[in-house]
Design goal:
single chain, 328 residues, Immunoglobulin-like, 60s Ribosomal Protein L30, Chain: A, 3 domains, five-stranded antiparallel beta sheet, four-stranded mixed beta sheet, 20 strands
Length: 328
């Protein structure tokens, strides 16, 4: 009798053959792009750090938000983080799985979330109309009076961070130079729509007989009192006089054409006297500042006697100027 008749032959089992594509894990280039979270704009000037598998690389993002490539990093675990203005991005984690696939570059985006606005300014020469490098600038919060300073770079650029819903003044603070007082406000700006605020800061050489209109210093109609915004501008004049002890100036005041000519002449003299009094109260010798009122004799626009003009047009003529009487 034959045992096992009609039974199947038992075949030893063999490993199953894998018909799929085996994951490719290889060295890759890593490209990091940093964006502002609130506006989705590419963000320059971010320090990007990549750490892991014996690598510790740092680079600065360019105008397109791109950090320099780290070439051919080996598969493994990495941490990527960006930092700008003391604020860090969330950490981006990479593992060996991120190195799978045939593409030669791993591209990742990280987001920087700073609720402040960025002021990008330029210091430029009043006469030559070109940027001036290495100029000291001062940013002051007009409400808190807190200020910070910075020197413009080789291209005449400077950068400050501005809080939301705030007003600021910006001036240059450089011996032998005079700058306008510029005002910057973030009030009414939507941070989700706006990241950058730009400003050009005029810087002029101090020299005998030079004349400058003091921007942003105005008087209310028929009054000679120093307004808070005017006081900020005069504070800059005080700083310039203190920084240049040989400087003597004429401070002149001008009215618009409304009212009696003789009355306007006297009003302008009161305004000039008030401005000089303010400057002297800050520690400047009265012998260094001459007050002069010109009334409506030197209008800057068409708004003479009898001409219909807007309040804004009239206010242009209610101005204060300085003239360099002596500087050496």
């Amino acid at each position: 009798m034959t045992f096992g008749k009609g039974q199947r032959e038992v075949v030893p089992s063999r490993p199953l053959k894998y018909d799929g594509v085996k994951p490719v894990i290889q060295n890759k280039d890593l490209q990091i792009v940093v964006k502002d979270k609130q506006t989705q704009l590419a963000l320059s000037g971010v320090t990007v750090s990549i750490v892991g598998e014996g690598i510790e690389e740092r680079s600065i993002t360019d105008a397109n938000g791109q950090a320099n490539k780290v070439v051919a990093i080996k598969p493994g675990n990495y941490e990527v983080i960006g930092e700008k203005n003391g604020i860090k991005t969330p950490i981006l984690y990479l593992s060996a799985e991120d190195f799978q696939g045939s593409a030669g570059t791993i591209l990742r985006e990280i987001y920087h979330d700073d609720p402040r606005f960025t002021l990008i300014g330029e210091t430029f020469d009043c006469d030559l109309q070109r940027n001036l490098p290495n100029i000291s600038t001062v940013l002051t919060n007009t409400e808190t009076k807190m200020n910070v300073s910075q020197i413009s770079d080789a291209e005449g650029k400077f950068i400050y961070q501005l809080e939301q819903n705030s007003d600021y003044s910006v001036v240059a603070n450089q011996q032998g130079r005079y700058s306008q007082t510029e005002f910057v406000s973030t009030k009414g700006l939507d941070r989700s729509q706006t990241l950058y605020v730009t400003l050009k800061l005029g810087v002029c050489e101090l020299k005998n007989d030079a004349e400058f209109v003091l921007k942003n210093i105005f008087y209310d109609f028929d009054k000679s009192g120093i307004r808070p915004d005017a006081a900020l501008v005069l504070d800059n004049v005080v700083a310039i006089l203190k920084q240049n002890p040989t400087l003597k100036i004429e401070l002149s005041s001008h009215t618009d054409s409304r009212g009696n000519d003789d009355y306007n002449l006297k009003l302008s003299q009161r305004r000039a006297d008030a401005a000089v009094k303010y400057i002297v109260s800050k520690g400047i010798s009265a012998s260094r500042v001459v007050a002069k009122g010109y009334g409506e004799k030197r209008l800057l626009n068409r708004c003479g006697n009898g001409v219909q003009c807007s309040e804004e047009e009239h206010q242009i003529n209610r101005r204060t100027e300085i003239k360099i009487l002596e500087y050496h």
